[in-house]
Specification:
This protein has 3 helices and no strands. With about 90 residues, the protein is mainly alpha-helical. Helix 2 packs antiparallel against helix 3. The two termini are about 20 Å apart.
Length: about 90
């Protein structure tokens, strides 16, 4: 994404956050971290086969949280890096 920008262009937060590579990385992180958290939080119900007692809303939120944290962190870091590069030029 950063390579496609000209000297005077400054991308918005949402332009950077919408980058396919960044989103794919966030999905991978969310799958890993969310799975670990779900095993910690609801693993006993899964092992016992008590699927009717599982809170599926919490499962979704447990995957969404690391996705949004990873996306936000990567976007803010990229914005800071681009601003430093532009200031140095």
């Amino acid at each position: 994404m950063a390579q496609n920008l000209t000297k005077n262009m400054s991308p918005s937060f949402f332009q950077i956050a919408g980058d396919v590579k960044l989103l794919l990385r966030s999905v991978k992180i969310a799958l890993l971290v969310g799975s670990i958290y779900n095993l910690i939080n609801q693993g006993d119900l899964l092992v016992q086969g008590l699927f009717h007692q599982i809170n599926y809303v919490k499962i979704c939120l447990t995957y969404m949280t690391p996705f949004f944290v990873a996306t936000y962190s990567a976007t803010v870091t990229t914005l800071k890096m681009l601003r430093k590069q532009q200031a140095a030029e």
